[in-house]
């Protein structure tokens, strides 16, 4: 069982990687368990080496300059939810780290003891791990914050939409990353280095387009600020000497109405947040699929269409990070 180091990203809060680290740890343990169950087979040894290499790449987030502008794009007020911190880290690890690392030990080429067919079967056999981990641990305090204690007590039947959307796109991005890893493994060393640069620029472009430009649906507010929080009428202070029975009943109805309105507005804000997070996950994943395919398969089109967007985003990120402000803790 390997020890997982949690990187701290310069310019981001220390806890930024907490949600992903929690999920990643449980995923890693599940994969290690799968490998142990098949101990002795060549594919089990390959999986164990992949787990170690993935952990090293994850650790390098803290020091490698390759990731600099991706994490600069994360310094954004729109990414204020822990669920979004999980998303941007998970998609980076799946869509960039996974193909880059696997290409170095691609079965049948750089790892001849395991055939392509064996590795393919093992890779897709791990698919159920990711939705299972999200279902069991995606609502913990470490992943979603202070509401985790309450969320864990909600039956699994009521899994929130963002987790379902994240599970769906995790599966799709993993399948695409497998294909990308094969293409990288079959590239020459010179082409590989250039392709890795384009891949990271594609990731920065996909994220920057969402963090620097509008993406969230309109946020609705209560019609009047006075109704934002419950205004409870103190019924215990009402006596027959002071008010009539009709006034007391009216006060009770007002209290109930205020409580119901408060609950409704709170539920509305939760729903809007869930929709907003789901929209982010889907738009981000679609951009990753589109831009990464171009980065790996069509160099000319990337230079013509994607790289100019990257340089514009890079310029905006440089401007954003040169503005005076407090360094997040």
User: What's the total helix number?
Assistant: 12
- The percent range for helix content is 55-70%
The N- to C-terminal Cα distance equals 31 Å
Radius of gyration: 24 Å
The structural domain count equals 1
Report the principal-axis shape.
globular
> Main beta sheet: strand number and arrangement?
none
Instruction: State the low-pLDDT regions, or none.
Output: 148-159, 215-239
Give a count of the beta strands, DSSP E runs of length 2 or more: 0
Could you say which structural class the secondary elements and strand pairing correspond to? mainly alpha
What order do the helices and strands come in, and which of them pair?
Layout: H1 18-37, H2 42-59, H3 68-72, H4 82-104, H5 116-125, H6 129-137, H7 141-144, H8 148-151, H9 161-185, H10 189-211, H11 245-297, H12 299-322
What do these coordinates show?
This protein has 329 residues and is an all-alpha fold. The chain has one domain (18-221, 257-322). Helices cover 66% and strands 0% of the residues. It contains 12 helices and no strands. The longest helix has 53 residues, at 245-297. It is globular and about 75 Å long. Mean pLDDT is 80; it is low at 148-159 and 215-239.
